[in-house]
């Protein structure tokens, strides 16, 4: 609504350079997102196998609650979590990055040309959007660093691919697993527990996010995804 009424541009311009969600591209991005989840699980198992208890990521725990107790929470999660995850992307990687990127003097011959150059780079928007994304969660310590890195990666991919699809695919996939696993193991009452995490989580997530970044960038080149309006 801000984009449409205040900035006077198509409100779907926060979604992509084509003013819409590119559904086929979103599905393509889901493939490396699944790869990210698999790599994250393997990295967690490896870290837990070699790390002391206070540095473990905690990939195990809980017992299967049974299909009857799992099906209803799973349906609710599958219906609502994609909207929750996509909504965060529309705010933090969609509108906010664009709003920061649109700031600064427009006169190329003005006195503050360095300011124009700075804000024509995507990085001020990526950093501000990432910091706002972190502040909207209750994480501390290394968990904050991990979620900030996540925000930078999906933010860069948003700029690189000209839309939110890559960010939405990874965010939705990550959050579905984050909710479905506790539901399957009887720990759904802890769904909103955030807080800190060991440094091993941050280190283990770096190659997983790097894989997703490289894979999506490669797919975008291969599919000739449009970056500019």
Automatic annotation (TrEMBL):
Transmembrane segments: 25-44, 64-83, 118-136, 142-159, 166-185, 197-220
Molecular function terms from GO: endopeptidase activity; metallopeptidase activity
Gene Ontology biological-process annotations: CAAX-box protein maturation; proteolysis
InterPro entries, A to Z: Rce1/LyrA-like_dom (IPR003675)
Domain CAAX prenyl protease 2/Lysostaphin resistance protein A-like stretches: 73-177
Keywords annotated in UniProt: Hydrolase, Membrane, Metalloprotease, Protease, Transmembrane, Transmembrane helix
Protein name: CPBP family intramembrane metalloprotease
């Amino acid at each position: 609504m801000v984009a449409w009424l205040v900035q006077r541009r198509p409100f779907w311009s926060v979604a992509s350079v084509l003013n819409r969600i590119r559904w086929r591209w979103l599905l393509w991005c889901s493939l490396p997102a699944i790869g990210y989840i698999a790599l994250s699980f393997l990295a967690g198992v490896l870290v837990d196998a070699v790390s002391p208890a206070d540095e473990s990521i905690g990939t195990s725990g809980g017992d299967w609650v049974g299909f009857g107790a799992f099906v209803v929470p799973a349906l609710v999660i599958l219906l609502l979590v994609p909207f929750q995850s996509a909504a965060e992307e529309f705010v933090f990687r969609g509108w906010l990055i664009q709003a920061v990127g649109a700031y600064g003097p427009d006169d190329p011959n003005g006195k503050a040309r360095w300011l124009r150059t700075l804000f024509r780079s995507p990085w001020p928007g990526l950093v501000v959007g990432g910091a706002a994304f972190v502040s909207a969660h209750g994480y501390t310590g290394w968990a904050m660093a991990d979620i900030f890195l996540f925000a930078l990666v999906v933010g860069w991919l948003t700029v690189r691919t000209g839309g939110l699809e890559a960010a939405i695919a990874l965010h939705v996939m990550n959050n579905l697993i984050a909710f479905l696993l506790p539901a399957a193991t009887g720990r759904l009452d802890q769904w909103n527990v955030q807080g800190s995490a060991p440094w091993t989580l941050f280190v283990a997530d770096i190659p997983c996010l790097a894989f997703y970044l490289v894979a999506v960038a490669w797919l975008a080149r291969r599919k000739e995804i449009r970056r500019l309006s």
